[in-house]
Design brief:
Number of helices of chain A: 13
Order of helices and strands of chain A: HEHHHEHEHEHEHEEEHHHEHEEEH
Structural class of chain A: alpha/beta
Radius of gyration of chain A: 21 Å
Oligomer: homodimer
Largest sheet of chain A: 7 strands, mixed
Number of strands of chain A: 12
Shape of chain A: globular
Largest interface: A-B, 68 and 68 residues
Strand content of chain A: 5-15%
Distance between the termini of chain A: 41 Å
Strand order of the largest sheet of chain A: 2-8-7-6-5-3-4
Chain lengths: ~400, ~400
Amino acid sequence: MTIEAKFRRLGTENAPGQEVRQDMDGIGPLLRGDPLPGRAVDYSHGDVDAHPPAPGAFDLFAAGVAAGGAQAYTEYRGDAAIRALLAPRLAAFTGAPVDAAEGLILTPGTQGALFLAVAATLARGDRVAIVQPDYFANRKLAGFLEAEVFPVRLDHHGAQAGQAGIDLDQLEKAFRSGVRVFLFSNPNNPAGVVFSPAETGAIAALALRYGVTVIVDELYARLRYGGVDYTHLRALMPPEAPVITIIGPSKTESLSGYRLGAAFGQPALIARMERLQAIVSLRAPGYGQAVLRGWFDEPAGWMEARIRAHQVIRDDLLRVLRGAGDIAVRTPQAGSYLFPRLPPLAVDPGDFVRILRHQAGVTVTPGTEFSPDAGDSVRLNFSQDHEAAVAAVERMVALVARYRA
Amino acid sequence: MTIEAKFRRLGTENAPGQEVRQDMDGIGPLLRGDPLPGRAVDYSHGDVDAHPPAPGAFDLFAAGVAAGGAQAYTEYRGDAAIRALLAPRLAAFTGAPVDAAEGLILTPGTQGALFLAVAATLARGDRVAIVQPDYFANRKLAGFLEAEVFPVRLDHHGAQAGQAGIDLDQLEKAFRSGVRVFLFSNPNNPAGVVFSPAETGAIAALALRYGVTVIVDELYARLRYGGVDYTHLRALMPPEAPVITIIGPSKTESLSGYRLGAAFGQPALIARMERLQAIVSLRAPGYGQAVLRGWFDEPAGWMEARIRAHQVIRDDLLRVLRGAGDIAVRTPQAGSYLFPRLPPLAVDPGDFVRILRHQAGVTVTPGTEFSPDAGDSVRLNFSQDHEAAVAAVERMVALVARYRA
């Protein structure tokens, strides 16, 4: 594959955060009615002004700068003392040991961890199973590495209560056909569903039976509503199994501006990831790594308050969306995403997303970023100012009605 | 190529900064004499405690944090206002226009810029010309991308005064044989030589004639001694030529702990790099980007003082090394690296590097990281405490004498 062909598959025109680069050419003739006034809301990512960074982060950063060279130049896999602090916390959180010296790497954001994990396990032509819908970068990563994607359906709308809705028959078929790596997010991004203990157990059993490497993106695993039962896949696998778990403080903890993430699991894979990090970015930002000293050690009650704040926004937005009558949306069990399915519209879904931004100041991410079959859906990150978020979804519902087919 | 084979080529055992992971097994029987006491010096990277970060960096970071969400979530290519600030400064520095909107990307360190530039221009099987010796990651990047390396000799020891010593005949042969990309550092890392105006002019002419994409790593281009004549390749090329220039504030400005870099040049290539950054790390650390507001805008006299401080260390180390009689070392015209060639030793060069660390507390980087032909050389980053650096090189010279063949 030529370099030109490779990059044609890596479009970012609709990627979250890139909307300012979109052009609005040709949108004029499609418009119906007047603009809807109101405070603009960018649902493509969370609003860290409305939900500020976990307390103490900046002071820890300042202490990192004061520590000087030792904090600026860490091992590529990250500062040894910080890894030693984090490993038991990550072990307690996930229910299985974490090897601070050999089994943990700090990365520039969870995106960095994801890239390293995927690029350390997939060679050209290898088969990878990817859930649809799932995080938008997953398919792009496979495309960049020239791996062959085997899609696995997640029927989040149709699933039984308490199930995420993964098609386990399709997953086994994928594994049987020679898939080498299974990559998925849990809680799912964009649908906010959590894999049930039975689903996670089945994935673990299949991965073991077929010798498949599993990469689990648990970025939203701390932001869970109403006591949902969450099972960490790694706790169900033997310690030596090829499993990599990824998490970071960018979302629930609002620390995205520091660009930090972590991956932990099989030492051989972590070692490969470090070799790759050496030529990709050297290390997670040195001073920033110091911020992780406070991670999984927030003040008592802080996380509960953050979850409550998101739950009320979630519930209000669900009420507005469901009030429309023809918008289907499942209640997310975790995370801060809604992934409503819109009714048939008179305009192309991509144009509707542009119209929504142009006429109502509402930025959402088109469903096609997450699955080729989800063109009728849009993703909203509801980690926003409460009042502004409700008003913006009301405008969205109004425009859905206006543009209905 | 399998993923295992791919990663076998990516060793980091001897990479700068990873020495703490080296084992000292089997070194006992090789040792001669007693340890040499003295303050340990890690020449694998600069000492930012001895040469502190450019003034104002931390305050700019703090202002970035205070700015909140807008600074945390920038476009993938970096904050538009900061790019608008930097573009004219980079244009003034390099002598050719920089397009803030379409021709500049901010990255996690210059390593991030280098990875993106190389991965955005080389597909599997493409040919890339790489100077030997040159920055250790260059060959590894080509290996990871399964590109074919065409080495180009840099005879820095034998070159005429004022020349870096690149073999231009070999370069043309490489270009004629179908090389697609030429990647090199100027000033050269590890040798500290600067390409003469005539050499840079010849490279520009050859690249144009053969349609070769050029990636120039100018990381050390601000730290130049004694008015050396530096020519930016991009200033010799038409504005639409496929040239990417890379620079960052990690070295001369001691800002490595913030992980910042920049690449600028042909918009089509910058666009590809951004698409790739979207799946590799999303963006350069958001708050960190704010530090770049002070870049190329340091207080009057600050850069001159930094250069003087390095020049006196350089000159003292050269005197000690040359005093040994059988160590060959060229005077670097820029940067903070020395790349001395040691006499034949009774131990393997890799073992000598371990012995040096074990017996003398002196960490250097083996020459083989930079060229397969440079096993007899070691690299020293002399951006260190002046007194400690001189004492450590004296210990190194003593051990060279002790282990001479």
